[in-house]
Automatic annotation (TrEMBL):
InterPro entries: ATP-dep_DNA_Helicase, ERCC3_RAD25_C, Helicase/UvrB_N, Helicase_ATP-bd, Helicase_C-like, P-loop_NTPase, XPB/Ssl2_N. Coiled coil: none annotated. The keyword rRNA-binding does not apply. Belongs to the helicase family. RAD25/XPB subfamily. PANTHER family: GENERAL TRANSCRIPTION AND DNA REPAIR FACTOR IIH HELICASE SUBUNIT XPB (PTHR11274:SF0), RAD25/XP-B DNA REPAIR HELICASE (PTHR11274). Pfam families: ERCC3_RAD25_C, Helicase_C_3, ResIII. Keywords: ATP-binding, Helicase, Hydrolase, Isomerase, Nucleotide-binding. It comes from Leucobacter komagatae. It is an enzyme of class 5 (isomerase). One of its GO terms (molecular function) is 3'-5' DNA helicase activity. This is DNA 3'-5' helicase. SMART domains: DEXDc, HELICc. The keyword Hydrolase applies. It catalyses: Couples ATP hydrolysis with the unwinding of duplex DNA by translocating in the 3'-5' direction; ATP + H2O = ADP + phosphate + H(+).
Length: 548
């Protein structure tokens, strides 16, 4: 009998032997319910968490399936305590439900009187409930649906929300398929959302999350509010809806820093929703400006904290979250679960790549030695300055130029965090620079020039991380990032994963200052990609010739 690639430990960590022939199969099955914590070269460490198990349960997976995955791939027997804990944790989902009674009153119902006693007597939950109707049922305050779900998750008893949704004002939205049609996984994602009524769809960058949003809007058939990361993303959503649906320009409004339109389908930026005037959120009236049938949250892993509070009050409306990763750097995955909804559908990056819908990619980490003068500056610097010194080393300009020369003729993005570093890089490469200060119209012009091939190199700040469709980019060179942000790593690789017109394989380079916090943060960022099955080839800057 062949021993599997996993070691399941009693502290709920799972070790994956990367070189094992069954490692890829085990990785894909683990991703359904476990989070990758560490990803060095040979052994990856996953952790099985309550939230991961509840998301798997909400997406239709069972404890039996998860235990079967662990048992089939484990080198040694799964500790009995871990198996019992997985089964018990997954059983907790749905033991409480939020429903409506015959008069339309919200009620919390349990199948166990002891569970109801526990939650109803909890200090933070009791004020959200009225006097118990019986041992299994208690009324819920009309305003408390969202907060109750948050508190129940924190207590360890995630409620299944069966209370239904306002239909919203009907509006004719239909897909206009011609030379395209929904892919199988996109159709399954829409079906899963329809069944649940709210929740999150997890798909890789480039896999067509916007189309899932459009098809979900058509399935609901009501006025829709779409929340996006920035104005460029808003315009890309508008263009895609005009191309893929029966909607016209007169029916789609943009609500951003530049334009304030409220139409049957309105696309608003998170920034405008969370902007304050005299200490008040000035644009929250948008949330009730129409009788929305569905609210779409694009890039839900970037949802600003104030929007969670607003969303807690919108539980009667259908909510669809779209993202490439459920990872949030602020640790608020539980709020996504309780307020937007649980994960309804996901598809592995490598699976969609194998079907030809996203481009294959190779990832390289290029390690660079700091020169003596910068090494000394780094050594005596305060902790808060060290990352900037290490990640902004001038040596990265030389290495970036070498990489660009090796990919002559390809469309190349150079991506970074620090504006002065990017300005210097753009000048050295004689390439256009796009930052948050670049006017939206100028950004669109430069992105269009890049798409058409008129510009072959763009130097971009983090404004290009989010929802920017650059299908012909085949090379990305990351020179600095947001410290250890896994979500940013996912977004940046995603810029390369759109299917190409040619057979060119995408190449993702990260330039790292050796033996510095730059290298430490890089290891954290790479965890997400390792979870998806993308291995990094680590090279010394002097060995770049080995790449091609």
């Amino acid at each position: 009998m062949t021993l599997g690639p996993l070691i399941v430990q009693s502290d709920h960590t799972v070790l994956l032997e990367v070189a094992h022939p069954d490692a890829e199969d085990a990785r894909h099955e683990l991703a359904v319910f476990a989070e990758l914590e560490r990803a060095p070269e040979h052994i990856h460490t996953y952790r099985v968490t309550r939230l991961g198990l509840w998301n798997a349960r909400a997406a239709g997976h069972t404890a039996e399936e998860i235990l079967d995955t662990l048992n089939r791939h484990a080198k040694f027997p799964v500790p009995s305590g871990v198996a019992s804990e997985i089964a018990d944790t997954m059983r907790r989902y749905g033991r409480l439900t939020i429903e409506r009674d015959a008069e339309g009153q919200l009620i919390l119902r349990s199948d166990d009187a002891a569970i109801m006693r526990e939650v109803s007597s909890a200090k933070k939950i009791a004020p959200l409930l009225g006097n118990k109707i019986d041992d299994l049922t208690a009324p819920v305050e009309a305003w408390a649906r969202g907060e109750l779900k948050q508190q129940l998750v924190a207590r360890g008893w995630p409620a299944e929300d069966l209370a239904g949704y306002r239909p919203g004002e009907p509006y004719d939205i239909s897909l206009e398929e011609g030379d395209w049609e929904l892919r199988d996984y996109q159709a399954k994602a829409v079906e899963a959302f329809q069944r649940g009524g709210s929740g999150v769809v997890v798909l890789p960058c480039g896999a067509g999350k916007t189309l899932v949003g459009a098809a979900s809007m058509a399935a609901v058939g009501a006025k829709t509010l779409i929340l996006v990361t920035n104005a460029v993303s808003a315009r890309q959503w508008r263009d895609e809806l005009l191309k893929r649906t029966n909607l016209t320009e007169d029916e789609i409004g943009e609500y951003s820093g530049q334009v304030k339109e409220v139409k049957p389908v309105t696309i608003a930026t998170y920034q405008i929703l969370t902007s304050k005037r005299k200490g008040e959120y000035a644009h929250l009236s948008l949330l009730d400006a129409q009788d929305w049938g569905v609210i779409v949250y694009d890039e839900v892993h970037l949802l600003p904290a104030p929007v969670f509070k607003l969303t807690a009050e919108l539980q009667a409306r259908r909510r669809l979250g779209l993202t490439a990763t459920l990872v949030r750097e602020d640790g608020r995955e539980g709020d996504v679960f309780s307020l937007i909804g649980p994960k309804r559908y996901d598809a592995a990056w490598k699976d969609i790549e194998a079907q030809g819908f996203i481009a294959p990619a190779e990832c390289f980490e290029i390690r660079i030695d700091l020169p003596e003068s910068e090494r000394l500056e780094y050594a005596i610097a305060e902790d808060q300055d060290r990352y900037r010194i290490a990640s902004s080393t001038a040596q990265k300009e030389r290495v970036a130029r070498e990489i660009i020369d090796r990919h002559e003729g390809e469309s190349i993005l150079v991506i970074g965090q620090y504006i002065d570093q990017l300005e210097s890089m753009a000048e050295a490469l004689n390439a256009p620079l796009i930052t948050g200060q670049t006017p939206v119209n100028d950004r669109e012009d430069l992105f269009n020039a890049f798409r058409s091939g008129e510009e072959k190199i763009l130097v971009v700040s983090k404004v290009a991380n989010f929802s920017v469709d650059l299908p012909d980019a085949s090379v990305a060179i990351q020179i600095s990032g947001s410290f250890g942000s896994r979500q940013e790593e996912a977004q940046r690789l995603g810029r390369l994963l759109r299917p190409k017109q040619t057979d060119v394989k995408a190449s993702f380079y990260t330039l790292i200052a050796r033996d510095t916090v730059d290298q430490d943060f890089a290891q954290n960022r790479q965890r997400f990609l390792a979870e998806q099955g993308y291995a990094y080839t680590i090279l010394d800057a002097e060995d770049l010739a080995a790449v091609r």
